[in-house]
Fold RNA helicase.
Amino acid sequence: MIIVSVKEKKRKASDDEGDKKSAQKIANGGPAAVSTDFCEEKEKLMGRKRGSPHLTAPMNKLLLDPNASKGSSHYRRSRPCFDLILDGSDLVGRARTGQGKTLAFVLPILESLINGQNKESGKMDMEKPSVLVLLPTRELANQVYSDFEVYGRAIGLSACCLYGGSLTLLETPGRVKDHIERKTLDLKALKFRVLDEADEMLNMGFVDDVELISTLLFSATLPEWGEEELQIFGNEKMKASANVRHLVLPCTRVARNQLIPDGGRTIIFTETKDSASELAGVLPGARALHGDVVQAQREVILAAFRSGSFLVLVATNVAARGLDINDVQLIIQCEPPRDVEAYIHRSGRTGRAGNSGVAILLYEPRYSHNISRIERESGVKFERISAPQPAEVAETVGSEAADAISNISDSVIPIFRSRAEQLLSTSGLSAVDILAKALAKAAGFTDIRKRSLLSSKDNYVTLLLRMGKPMFSPSFAYSALRRFIPDEKMAGVRDVSLTADGMAAVFDVPDEDVELFIAGQENASMVEIEIPKELPPLQEKEQPRGGFGGRGRFGGNRFSGGKGGGFGRRGGGGGGGSGGGRFNRR
Ligand SMILES: Nc1ncnc2c1ncn2[C@@H]1O[C@H](COP(=O)(O)OP(=O)(O)OP(=O)(O)O)[C@@H](O)[C@H]1O
């Protein structure tokens, strides 16, 4: 919980220094890049060189401060919030993730406390706060507190953040009730009560507590409660971020860790704590964050991730909501979450404050049904992609390796020449072939494997079967194959799925059996088998009951496909925004 107790301070000379620092902090704390519309809003406001007549001079000064970029452009966007909060109305506010809901209540509340009916006059008293903000996790409490602190101080108000050392985070609203009952907290002076991530609090069964203490409810995902609800930045009813490319990629559990890319700040979500720990254990430099990690450690991990000490955070839903971390370019969800709200919040950890981002949802090809459900309910149109073939990746990386070789100093030649001559005379390969191998080695490849389009499994190839007539079930396709493929080879057939039009089936076979299947069609009439370049749209299959949230095991070697074998970015992590052209679109 955050309890913000605010009072007007007498201005002293030393405050000017504090204000300068605050302004600096605001400037430094801003996102690395702001979107066009964030900037346009700011320019419009700055161009007018005047603030709002409704606001106090300190708030106008803050909003017009060129360093306080967040505040200035924010005002125009959240004007309805200002009006309602200054009027003392109850408010239910909803906007997509990363749109700035926090400032949408922080700034008007602060303004209200130095202006109008809620003007603070009394002495600062930690036991009698003026504002109480409840949030589901301590990490979020710290984050929102820092906005109150920075903006409050800049306009001459001070704030504090209190939370019980031993309290379980999810008990936070209950804890407030405890305080009230034990008379360690007096809420009589309270002027604002805010419930952030309100739907989550309600889901956790805090309805009574909420009725007791809340007047402002905010979240990207809220049930519809009627007309008082304010769509803060446009008409946005529980929709996923529009600044994010939402991609889905079929991938079996075993193939997942081969696909996780290197570079760039990434959050990977798993369904279980065990999966998060296991995956973090096999990804170099990754760290896990979940409910079993002790609180103090959680804060250390998050601070280190924010500061860039490590780049891959593997988390459960504890990191799904609210966290605002600069420059997270990629979100990977290892399987479809149970509810659409989780999808919206998780994917919303990127694409914030007008920046763009990529969210990739991995799913078992057999259960594509879950994808359609999330697509329908979140309002996103998923781009369906398949994992790139290692050969394509190798080609790109190979040309970078070639550039790198041209830049190597001639001083190395005398040292390596005799070994090169020996290789040329003994290997039986041409000079060009040997050079090709050297490039492969420099690019991190020792062999090139095939990768299934259907399941992303290495060393499997997806084949497409047509029989010149509709197929009514996968077993129909399977029986057709059995007519001309020996039993021992049929044992290698995986994931038979019908195409959406019902006229073909796709399935995986081990790479070494591909020729046999292609040649086998000669012995069967009306049968065509080919290697598709792209995966066609498939019919959906229901996931059996209880199938969600299973415990994934992430064994094997992540780098088995060679360096760059994943689907994302390389080269310092700059290219995550659009996937760097490495995704295979379907
Ligand atoms: N006008 C603005 N200009 C630039 N950045 C802004 C502006 N308003 C807010 N921001 C920044 O946008 C980011 C996202 O804001 P915030 O965390 O409040 O989003 P949110 O809508 O609450 O998201 P979520 O639903 O995920 O909690 C923050 O870094 C915030 O400082």
Notes: The radius of gyration is 29 Å. The pocket of adenosine-5'-triphosphate is lined by residues 31, 34, 38, 69-70, 73-74, 95, 97-103, 220, 322, 324, 348, 352-353 (CB under 6 Å). The chain has four domains: 51-219, 244-384, 390-408+415-443, 460-530. Residues 321 and 345 are 5 Å apart (CA to CA).
